[in-house]
Amino acid sequence: MMNQIQSEIVMILQNCLFSTSINFPFMQLHIQSDNLNDYLQEIPPVIVFSTPLVQQQIEKIKMQASTDEERAKAAFEVARDKITHSFDIQSKIITVSAEDTLQKGEGICFAKSHLLAALLRGMGIPAGFCYQRVLRKGTIDSGYALHGLNAVYLKDKGWFRLDPRGNKPGIDSQFSIETEKLAYPIRTALGEIDYPEVYAKPLDSVIKSMQESTDCSALFYNRPEMV
After folding, report:
1. Contact 127, 199 (CB under 8 A)
2. What's the CATH number where 75 sits?
3. Residue 85: inside a domain
4. Residue 32 lies in a domain
5. d(C-alpha 54, C-alpha 58), whole Å
6. Per the structure, how many domains does the chain have?
7. Mean pLDDT estimate for the chain
8. What is the domain range of residue 30?
9. pLDDT value at position 13?
10. 3-state secondary structure of 56
11. For 27-57, what is each residue's pLDDT tens digit?
């Protein structure tokens, strides 16, 4: 009987650690500023929504969506689906700002979160920045790096998180308000951390790592490990 119970426990732990179907309850977020206006501001040169290219994308979204929820979903899908993840295609290019990410059509998680925030803020929808500490290559030996995503505020829904990282086999991030459907399961047993903070601006350490890396291959290892 004891062996059967132990086997069932092992199976449950394995499913928790290695499942790629991520469907989390709503997380209790820690909003860093009580002033919603802080989550609507431009942050030059990274989060700028007044440029012609970003405004053009915003107008496209407004034409196809009328409510804030519909527009938030459309903006999320632009950042998730229209922008290729640079690591997925082994690109050398580093994009940092929302403008550059949209223009080049690629970026890592941080860049995609910068674009999503710019699109949302440009439509008057408060958006912030969130981070997770994840294993670089799935093993402890590979080390840790921050992963960037967003939090969005809708008047009738409150704050919720979205991950525009981009889907691929094993990763399925969706626009979901009541239940989080993010890109990565956070395996605390392996030292990963899901930070609840919602920042009004990207972390300085994140921007520094992007600006000081010579190419995307270097950035893979230069990303900060913790907030």
Report:
1. no
2. 3.10.620
3. yes
4. yes
5. 6
6. 1
7. 91
8. 26-222
9. 35
10. helix
11. 799 999 999 999 999 999 999 999 999 999 9
Percent of the chain exceeding pLDDT 70 equals 89
Reading the block at residue 98, the tokens are 């929302």
**2 occurs within a structural domain:** no
For the chain, counts of helices (H) and of strands (E): 7, 10
Query: Per-residue confidence at 210, pLDDT binned at 50, 70, 90?
Result: very high
Are 144 and 134 in contact, with CB atoms under 8 Å apart? yes
Place of tokens 């893979």: 220
Six-digit token string for 136: 């670089």
> E strands within the chain?
24-25, 30-31, 84-85, 106-107, 127-135, 144-154, 158-162, 179-180, 193-194, 197-198
In a domain, 13, yes or no: no
In Å, what is the CA distance from 13 to each residue of 28, 130, 179, 200? 24, 26, 22, 35
Which residue type does 162 have? L
Contact 175, 76 (CB under 8 A): yes
**Dihedral sign of CA atoms 145, 167, 23, 17 in order:** negative
Cα(173)–Cα(165) distance, rounded to whole angstroms? 8
